[in-house]
Amino acid sequence: MDPLDDLMARCSLRDQRAFAELYRRTSGRLLAVAMRIVRRRDWAEEILQESFVSIWHHVPQYDRVRSAPMTWMTTIVRNRALDWVRRPQHETSDEGLEHVVENWADDAPGPLDRLRNDADAGALNDCLGQLSGQQRQSIALAYLHGLTHTELADHLQQPLGTIKTWIRRGLERLRGCMDGAT
Amino acid sequence: MKPTHPELRRRLAAEYVLGTLHGGARRRFELWLRSDPALRREVTGWEQRLVPLATTLPEVAPDPAIWRRIEARIDPSRVQPKPAWWSNLAFWRWSSFATAGLASLLFAYVVATPALHSAAPPDAMVVVMGDSATAQPSMTVAWTPEGRGKTRLRIRVIGHAEMAPDTAWELWMLPDGNKPPRSLGLINTHETQVVDLPEDLRGLLNRAAGMAMSLEPAGGSRTGAPTGPVLASGKCVKI
Predict the structure, then answer these.
(1) Which residues pair with residue A60 across a beta bridge?
(2) Chain B closest CA to A23's CA: distance in Å?
(3) In this structure, what CATH number is given to the domain that contains residue A79?
């Protein structure tokens, strides 16, 4: 059983102390998710705040059979961050983006290394290992940094069609591999 | 148009979760999701597959002010409350006006039923609730202030009421001393209905300042306090 399940159940009964504990345990990881996508701390903190208010109001409808607590909360934060970064007034500077791509290789330890060291990430890690380096990189950049096809094409200096193909084939292989592994 | 081809559905769900589906296509996909449980399962599957990428990121500690702001937003007792509708004197003025004339007229209607004729009719408590929009009486609530056992509220909905889909009507008692409203349960649109309340609520009800009915999501308020607009309200009078 997920250690957060009990906290989620108490939160759905409007237990504010359980909610404070849920925040204490998960806000650091969720802020990291938002920061990768919006690339500004103040924006990321605003997204974190709005996400937790939304989590509090929606936790009575949370279904633990459908998804684990961390998956559910990460989805709320990522969707808010993606909506935020795609509004014209919130476009992040290209400098930030250059930084993301340049540091991809020596992001220490890189996202793929961290996956390797995480017990829960075994299947994803094994299956990402079966993709080509280009497929793996474009999927991870899109998921973690919220890059669109066009942004990926610009920054990986590849035609748009090539990027779309890498992602489509990469996702198909990833699904086949992970569904086969479980 | 909603996608039906399985391969296309799978691809859209994957790219939605990845974040590469954006703009109008993303909004349209979110609309389809609402009415397509199979597509939602496809999306949940991708969320689970990819989430380890996000949860293995190094943590970033948020500014402590963020939690204080969240706390203030979810716990209204920590912030200065706005004056609530039930403490607004002007709100009650018309309602007492309406009550004075109507209570005696309604007495025969709601209280003096044939069953009560054999004994001396007991006192009755009546609330004539006025519609918030039209100020016309829209409902009456009556009960016997004395007696043992559960407290039976007899409710009469006046006119042909209609309830919007996915909503509920919740009846609230406004205790004396300006305390927050207390739920008396959900009511429906039937012309006559009864709500049985525990005996120990009778004392509180007899001293109540009034009652109100609010519009709530299906199943009633989730916060324990009225969350929607007040559709009707009235003062309690003894007749």
Answers:
(1) none
(2) 8
(3) 1.10.1740.10
